[in-house]
Structures are given as structure tokens and as C-alpha cells.
Design brief:
alpha+beta, 123 residues, 6-stranded antiparallel sheet, 3 helices
């Protein structure tokens, strides 16, 4: 399955890709049943058939499901459809920290609140 605008995964309608990392691609989508915006994280097609990667993805879902903190995106579920396994997560608006860092040094008055939020989430 190729994720492009308008593609559906269960009740979720994909709007756009919003991120990509070593462990997956992230898409903005609409939960058509509950009428809310969500983030959908899927394994890239190049590793989707790897049993070890799928197991790590499952563990990620289980860990996220066990956490509840205002600075950690919540997980709504794990979807499997047409050979695709996806995490359905809370959509957090705003700039990705890695993009902010790539723009240059973060002033201390901006960095301290970010560091505090990260430390509280890790606690």
C-alpha cells in the first residue's frame, strides 16, 4: 500500500506525510469515525517484511500504550490492514525538535523550557 492523500487505512484517511525517520514514516490523517486529526506511523516498505522490525514496532506500541504524560504523544491503537502495520497516535502540532536544532543554536531562554519538558517526560 502506498500512502498518498486520500488513501484509507481502516477508518483513517491519509492527508499528507509529515515526517520520516529510521523507524518509520509519519502521516497526518483524519479519523473518519471520531472526526479528529491523528498521526499514523508506518514502517517504510523496505523493512515492513522484516520480522525483527515488526517486533520492535509492536514493542514501541506497547510501551507507548503504558505511558500517560502531557509531553508524550498518546497512542490510540495499532492497525493492521493490507499487509501494513501502523501506529495510530495523537497528532502533536508544531515544529519537530530536530528541525529546530538544524536551524541553529537554540537560545538558552528557549532551550531551558524544552529541556524541562523532555526531562519531565523521561522521569
Amino acid at each position: 500500500m502506498t500512502f498518498t492523500p486520500g488513501v484509507r487505512l481502516g477508518v483513517y484517511e491519509v492527508a499528507a506525510q509529515i515526517g520520516e525517520g529510521g523507524m518509520g514514516q509519519v502521516f497526518r490523517a483524519t479519523d473518519t469515525r471520531l472526526k479528529r486529526q491523528v498521526a499514523i506511523k508506518v514502517l517504510p516498505p523496505s523493512v515492513a517484511g522484516d520480522h525483527d522490525r515488526l517486533a520492535r514496532f509492536q514493542r514501541e506500541a506497547e510501551v507507548l500504550a503504558s505511558l500517560s504524560h502531557p509531553h508524550i504523544a498518546g497512542i490510540y491503537g495499532l492497525e493492521e490492514s493490507d499487509g501494513v502495520t501502523a501506529l495510530i497516535m495523537e497528532l502533536v502540532e508544531g515544529e519537530d525538535l530536530s528541525r529546530r536544532i538544524a536551524r541553529g543554536a537554540i537560545p538558552i531562554d528557549e532551550a531551558l523550557p524544552i529541556a524541562k519538558q523532555i526531562a519531565e517526560a523521561l522521569e
